[in-house]
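Please, why this fold?
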Amino acid sequence: MKKIKTIHVSIAIITLKILLIVLILSVYLPKASESDLLFDSTFFWFLLAGFLAQMVDGALGMAYGVTSNSVLLGFGLSPRLASATVHTAEVFTTGVSGLSHIRVGNFDLKLFLNLFVPGVISASAGAFLLGSIIEGKVIKPFIAAYLIILGVFILSKVFKKKPKIKENLKFAPVYALFGGFLDAIGGGGWGPIVTSNLIRQGNTPNIVIGTVNTAEFFVTFFSAGILIYFTGIQSWQIILGLIIGGTLAAPIGAIITKKIPHKSMMIIVGCMIILTSSYTLIKALFL
């Protein structure tokens, strides 16, 4: 593990993205009809959705999955299919975002290695359960309630007088374990769970966000591969719209992360968690 360098992470991201493209083409194109390959308004709506979701995710380290998944569920997709679609798109958006963060210096290799293995293992297990056994909507209200509490806690910490900040990566693998599993099942949650807890423990926000985003690429890659196996690909327009929109926004989000002051970023992160999770909870319980 000590011989792993940042350049190796970048090479792995590019290689796995190419492999997923091959997988998508081999799964979808043989079954696609001529009408499936035509553009309509669906593509452009999800292009916009992907751009806005990744702008937020790249700058704050969270909310792409939550935002995109909520839109897909609103369009009538099942939790299983919505999660498969979001994770497939996220492989490309998080890949570009991760490379952008590495380039501008928002990356810590030690933290990345603490997140990578447990995140991939738990995400793979969650994707398998969602694809073959359970529905994500069962557990989603519990995830949303937890995130609301976490968002409030972060905001309360921001406004404490002269807080004692001591960086701590001790529990990073634990956060990755839970974050990867819940993200695969609920269609989102890796960023809010992992990023929020690491920031809450006093770690530098822009480094946490960049590193968590980079690790998320590998988490989503394995989730997407497993979910595609179970669900297939239903609409290339939704996936391509999310991918292109998110890819365009990813470099901008990395730059914003570098410029925003730490305190301001924590306020934004806390508010974003509360708002997106409240929407998810209300929709899961009452709509």
Remarks:
- Residues 42-286 form one domain.
- The chain has one domain: 42-286.
- The two ends are 47 Å apart (CA to CA).
- DSSP finds eleven helices and no strands in the chain.
